[in-house]
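User: My instructor asked us to take a sequence, write out its structure as tokens, and then describe one feature of it. I'm not sure where to start. Here is the sequence I was given:
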Amino acid sequence: MKWIYDKKWTGVMAAAVLLSVASSCSDSFLKENLTTERNTEYFNTNKGLEELEQGLYYGLRWQYAFEWGFTIYNYGTDEYICGSDGSNTMWNSYVPNLGSAITTININTTNAYDLWNNMYTAINNANLMLEKLEKYTGTKKSELSGVAHFIRGYDYFKLVCQYGGVPIKLKTSSTVEREFTRATPKEVCEQVITDLTAAYGELPASDNTPGKLTKSAAAHFLAKAYLWRASELNDSWNADTKAADLDQVIKYAGEVIAAHPLAANYSDLWNYTKVDGDNEKLPEIVLSAQFTNIASTSPTYGNDFHLYFIAIYRDLTGMSRDIAGGREYCRLRTTYYTYNVFDHLNDSRLWKSYRTKLNCTKTASSGGQNYVPGDRGVAFILNRPGDTRFSAVQTKDTWKDGETGKAVPNVFCLYPAGSKEGDNIMESDTWMKYYACNSKYLDGSRPTVSWEKGYRDGILARSAEDYFFIAEAYIRKGDYARATQYLNTIRQRGAWKAGEDREGHVDGGAAWKEGSEGWSVFGEVAGKGTYCDRSTYYESNNVPMGSLNANASDLTVNDISTVSSLPAEDQAVVKKLGLTKTYDVAMCFLLNEKTREMSGELLRWEDLARTKTLVSRAKAFNKDAAPNIDEHHYLRPIPQTYLDIIQKDGHALTKEEKTAMQNPGY
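Assistant: Let's start with the prediction itself. The structure tokens for your sequence are:
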């Protein structure tokens, strides 16, 4: 059975939300008559509280539900820049519009208050659960308390990572409250740890129902919270807790690793072939936001992330949109840093995380060539400087697919003849629509190509990240040898196995190929859609087709603290950033490795902000952010909607008081 959230919860949710710190609370709003079926008295019953638990889980979907997820967590870093749609460009470029009140470009623009409002709404519901539990007489009291504590700690952690100190509210409101003060980051983090520790003690050690919270989920985020407190962002106040915090990181992350073994093959994580399929039940997954195609449990939002990473393909020769290829919102363009931080020959994760081939979907003629559905239609060549095979970024009808021997009508390469490291031609505005896209979220199980509500689950925590937690803790302790051991475990999983087809590729587009949903929509024919289970591995590396399949590759590193011992791609990043200190070199390697393992997984902005590497890396690798980013961008602006509604001593805040309440620089 899968843990899902009943649609009837929407009415209950409306009754539960009495007041959010960030919500508008005019007198007219408070005088409105209750029109929902139930009021908060329903939560004095066992059934009411058990349904409230479903509502708390519902909030875990938030970051996958709209554009705010990638704007807050992926934009403005080294891994991705804006594609051809600029709805949220301010979050990537750090222009002055990224402030407490963002001027919207269109309805897709993420506001300064989106995260704030949603987290406080969920916190209020967790508070309600904890207050009502004293009247609960059922058998799930410990579980309900554990879920409420987890959600409150989890959401306060999201707030403190983004804003620093925020108001702490541990009780629901029965009257209008307008006077709030910001707690310090230290106080908020202490509350996070208190709540997650309570959840750790109350939640079950395991649960066979996918999506249910367990002790491991609490342990994962406890490790993450302790690591956040020990990070550079908090060096002005964390000296007394840092050493003990690092020990706690190792303890809790170690428990998660023991309980959640890594998937055997990195591609297993992304091999989505149907709703609730095997890849969503892997032991490596510690916690996931649950989505489904069951109409009665379909939420207001589905998992929209299948939309955002995809490059445009519908306007290319022989190509048209289909379900497997996806609807191209073209929001997140892969940077040259991300392409080049991988060992293209030996690291399988590049080819398992990024889509580099598409098949034609319609008949077409170009340059004397005839193309039919099923022919190779698009190829992205991830080559290196010095490659003379391509005269321009885009070639047509001349380069032949290494497997079929037939010319491909649309070929793009990172480095055409004569280009050099740093030219980054495909990051120019000319090519903003075309790039090898992150394929971790593709979802071919949708019923039509225009269907926005995706069905695949969103991974909130997987045990691979716990290896990074422990490695980072050891780096901070100065034990680089132990850190290397944990990182090598991740790297060994990412290496090619002997006998593995290095040209093979799987992604969620296979749900169209393998399943029945959307099979014949828009005239698609089985096996003739855009989905291609091949990559440009051999063509990009310019080695004979299939010549390396029998061999295993080796990604083992011996010493992450010495520049000369690092792989060439890491040495290039260290040089670009001008790093010389042992600690900085080791931390740089870890952050590079996390890109290779977890790029696009809604982690990057917070990792770079807490380690205070965001500014240097964005300046080095994000052309849009480089001119504008500075130290004040390590925190987000406190929303103007909050500052405008709160009071001090019975009066609205003055301009000076709002400035004092705001994070510096906004």
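For the description part of your assignment, you could build on this observation: Residues 6-36, 515-526 have pLDDT under 50 and may be disordered. Try explaining in your own words what that tells you about the chain.
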